[in-house]
Write a structure and sequence with these properties.
Chain A is α+β, with helices and mostly antiparallel strands and 287 residues long. In chain A, 37% of the residues lie in helices and 25% in strands. The relative contact order of chain B is 0.17. Classes of the chains: A alpha+beta (287), B mainly alpha (173).
């Protein structure tokens, strides 16, 4: 009898959390209480990491130093001209009467640890609502996009990594501007979804954010295409990608400021979608 | 001298605060962020199963439920996932406690292994129905390491209950 009671209670909780997301307040309260405990238990791992870093070979440090200096020189050229280009961009946009691009500030956060839940890919960062982080912000590292903040606590936040199965990000191919949706496929891989079998994508193409979702800034590098499986028996090609950023590695990350929401959809949106539907049908017939 | 029903050694009664303290310590051990390293045992499940087998009247499904909720929050997993699994574990462990305790420790470990595996399958079913990714077959290693730890953990948790060795001829108990 007690078993039935507790099992049904658990199932109700599962459904409430998975389907309706109604339990965030309870999670917030318990997580805030448990924060000092979590920091204490994290200490042995931190200490082990520090000790390992202390024992790092000098040669490796020198090599890394060299590598970083080279990369800095590589990007110095771009960085030095960026100020100039940005000014020019503002002037040109003013000339064309376009809305100015919003400046976006970032906040550096340290990735504390990967969440222990083996069913999803999340990491915990050391900045929370106290530091002005809110859910929905994009997180990048020095090479590209890592993921998105999904849950915020007072002093920490949870970042859903790009490789998680529930994460999707609108991208475009850098080479030709072809737009698509990139979704996590688990085990460190990603998949470019809903592209026709004859879409113009090559292995080695770089994918970057298109900025259509209003979350990610346009032009951030995301992933590289590694394998394309064009099977004509399926409507879509199976395109596998690997993330460019060290998504599953740990270190420092940059939480980008929230973008302003996109303007609301115009009233004639339904007719647009109807047109799109017609276009699709025509294309099918032509094939 | 083995702490089973078939041994002749008599244990002292358990102290309640010791049960609470060990369960809390197990929770702390579970909070250590090992990331996705396979084979790390679920300490809470191990200690909970131990107390459910040894003290089924004191530790039961309500304790399992509360611990499960704490684990769900700490693990950033879905609310109710660990609670469900721990409640099932506590039910089976308490139900089998009279049978399990008659066996020597190695065979006790063989009894608790299917309990841990069943608990993991319950979690897997709950999450896969919710649309999560399969964590890989290595994830089940943690059940085996927990079963391997049954022997040392039994001795460790029964230390406060062992009575002194010096026998009194006139009072055998």
């Amino acid at each position: 009898m007690r078993l039935v009671f507790f099992v049904s209670l658990s199932v109700v909780l599962l459904v409430a959390d998975l389907r309706f997301h109604t339990l965030e307040w309870a999670r917030l309260a318990v997580a805030t209480l448990a924060w000092p405990l979590q920091r204490i238990t994290g200490m042995p791992i931190d200490a082990a990491g520090d000790f390992g870093a202390y024992l790092t070979r000098q040669s490796r440090l020198l090599q890394e130093n060299e590598e970083l200096r080279r990369r800095q020189l590589d990007t110095a050229n771009l960085l030095l001209r960026q100020q100039h280009l940005e000014q020019e961009n503002i002037r040109l946009r003013a000339l064309l009467d376009m809305r100015a691009r919003l400046p976006v500030e970032g906040r550096i956060a340290e990735i504390l640890y990967a969440a222990r839940d083996p069913f999803s890919r999340r990491v915990i960062i050391d900045k929370g609502t106290q530091h002005g982080i809110s859910a929905g912000q994009a997180v990048v590292d020095d090479v590209g996009v890592i993921g998105q903040v999904v849950r915020v606590f007072p002093l920490t936040a949870e970042v859903l990594l790009l490789t998680d199965k529930e994460q999707a990000i609108p991208v475009e191919v850098q080479r030709n501007g072809l737009r698509a949706v990139l979704a996590g496929a688990g085990s460190g891989m990603m998949e470019l979804r809903f592209l026709a079998a004859n879409a113009e994508v090559k292995a080695g193409d770089i994918l970057m954010t298109s900025g259509l979702d209003g979350v990610y800034l346009p032009g951030l590098p995301v992933a590289k295409v590694v394998n394309i499986d064009r099977d004509n028996s399926y409507a879509f090609a199976r395109i596998t990608c690997v993330p460019l950023a060290g998504v599953e590695r740990h270190g420092l990350a940059l939480v980008l400021g929230a973008r302003k929401a996109l303007p609301p959809q115009p009233d004639d949106a339904p007719s647009l979608s109807a047109q799109a539907g017609r276009g699709k049908r025509i294309k099918k017939k032509a094939r | 001298m083995e702490p089973t029903h078939s041994s002749r050694r008599i244990l002292l009664p358990v102290r309640n605060w010791f049960i609470v303290a060990t369960l809390f310590l197990a929770l702390l051990l579970n909070l250590i962020p090992f990331g996705r390293l396979p084979g790390i045992p679920d300490w809470v499940a191990l200690v909970l199963a131990f107390w459910c087998v040894h003290q089924p009247l004191k530790v039961g499904m309500s304790a399992a439920f509360v611990l499960g909720l704490a684990m769900d929050v700490a693990n950033a997993s879905v609310m109710g996932q660990h609670a469900l699994a721990y409640v099932l574990l506590a039910f089976v462990a308490a139900g089998l406690s009279r049978r399990v305790l008659w066996f020597p420790l190695a065979q006790q470990a063989l009894h608790v292994l299917p309990m841990f595996l069943g608990m993991q399958v319950a979690m897997l079913a709950a999450r896969l129905l919710g649309g999560a990714e399969f964590p890989g077959i290595l994830w089940f290693l943690s059940s085996f390491s927990a079963a391997l730890l049954w022997h040392p953990v039994t001795y460790l948790l029964l230390i406060p209950q062992f009575s002194p060795e010096d026998k009194d001829v006139h009072r055998p108990i």
